[in-house]
Amino acid sequence: MRAGVSISTVSRVLNNHPYVKDSTRKRVEELLAEMDYVPNYNASSLVRKRTKTIAVMLPDISNNFFATIFLGIEEKASQNGFVVIFGNTSEDVNKEKEYMHMFLERRVDGIILDPVSVKGESLRPILNNEVPLVLIDREIVGMETSLVSSNNEKGASELVEYLIERGHERIGLITASKETSVFDMRNRGYFGALKRAGLEVRDEYIKVGTKPVQEVGHSLVQSLVRCDPAPTALFAANNGLAIGAAHGLRELGYEVPNDMAIVCFDELDNGAVLDPFFTSMNQQAYEMGVKATDLLLKQISKELNVTKKIYLDPHLFIRRST
């Protein structure tokens, strides 16, 4: 051994064992650096029974909201010496199940999941294997699992109330299935705001799509404007639906906000260039990622043995779309 010490001494240096002379530790570390040595983490994890790896599954990483959540997760995990592996489920239950099995096979220490499955069918392998789990954004009703999400009903109510204050009485809604918790709560916020203002909830003004993505928003808004009379304002339940709706309205010759005002949940995607920018209810996406990771790390270290649910207040940003 070029450092003039035994293999067991090198092992103690690699594992940060306290009983190594400072001079010996320095000599071994300098030599390892010269050699660009990379330890076999799989081998050492077998001894520790930890991989220092957490898995994250999100529905649509192209959406700025989910990308910002992931940034919060990754930075908090890195600060604590954990590596993050990622799966983009594309709002597809089958992909969610595939990633679940893949990550469990890799013996991840914990999982952060924004679930696509509304009844938690994909979560059974995690629960059966007692792998630490934190849900983020969407919750699964009746399942006792730690969660970090937003006050979605409150945020939706504030958006619709803002439109009412601007003089709008015919307000449409484009959304996704109420079986998904966040859209159920945002739909409730829409209904509640209209009822408190004494306005009619018109079924023809409510359009529900299969997925909360741009293509669906484009299709839904073109159906919505065929109502007689058409709405003067629109609440889109997320930014993907809102972007699609804005493009759909332009194709039909509508001007925003002159012909129809638009509000939505979440910030505009970085890649979408739209003018006017949306008045939006912005969630604390980065903070959601940080808090979810903090909960997961506490579960992994056995510091937290009970489920905990955290709901963060979103904030209204008024822009030119209204």
> At the fourth CATH level, what is the homologous superfamily of the largest domain?
Response regulator
Q: What share of residues is helical?
A: 40-55%
Cα-atom Rg, whole angstroms?
Answer: 24 Å
Strand fraction band?
A: 15-25%
Widest β-sheet, arrangement of strands: 2-1-3-4-5-11
Reading the helices and strands in chain order gives HHHEHEHEHEEHEHEHEHEEHEE
Ends distance: 72 Å
Number of strands: 12
Largest sheet descriptor: 6 strands, parallel
CATH architecture of the largest domain: 3-Layer(aba) Sandwich
For the record, the count of structural domains works out to: 3
- Report the structural category: alpha/beta
Stretches with pLDDT under 50, minimum 5 residues: 43-47
Number of helices: 11
Classified by CATH, the class of the largest domain is Alpha Beta
Can you walk through the features of this model?
The chain folds into three domains: 7-39, Orthogonal Bundle (434 Repressor (Amino-terminal Domain)), CATH 1.10.260.40; 51-151 and 285-315, 3-Layer(aba) Sandwich (Rossmann fold); 152-282, Rossmann fold (3-Layer(aba) Sandwich). Strand 6 (171-176), helix 8 (181-196) and strand 7 (206-209) form a beta-alpha-beta unit. The chain contains eleven helices and twelve strands. The N and C termini lie far apart (72 Å). The strands form two sheets. A six-stranded parallel beta sheet has the order 2-1-3-4-5-11, with helices on both faces. Strands 7-6-8-9-10-12 form a six-stranded mixed beta sheet, sandwiched between helices. By secondary structure, it is an alpha/beta fold. It has helices at 7-14, 22-34, 41-48, 64-79, 93-105, 124-128, 152-165, 181-196, 214-224, 239-251, 285-300, and strands at 53-58, 83-88, 110-113, 133-136, 146-150, 171-176, 206-209, 233-236, 261-265, 279-282, 309-312, 315-317.
